[in-house]
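Team,

Forwarding the record for the chain on the shared tracking sheet. I've put the sequence and predicted structure together so nobody has to dig through attachments.
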Amino acid sequence: MKILWTDEARFQISAIRDYIAKDSVKNANLFVKRLLSAPNRLIRHPDSGRIIPELKNPGKREIILGHYRIMYFVENDTIFITQVRHDARLFDR
């Protein structure tokens, strides 16, 4: 298994980093490092994330890190990270 971050997910990570960096660049970098490493557990257990409640589709899953939802799906031997969203934001299908 390998992990592939979509352009959308990368953009969202960059926006999260920029937002946190307004207060602390150090904390922004540390948090982004945690966000980027959180999905590594999926390599061994790709179905360990919960089904995204709004979608009710077993193929669309997410893991939670603090207040952030890391959304993904698995295709063949690749885990596609599609979105990284704060849980206070409404989910747009």
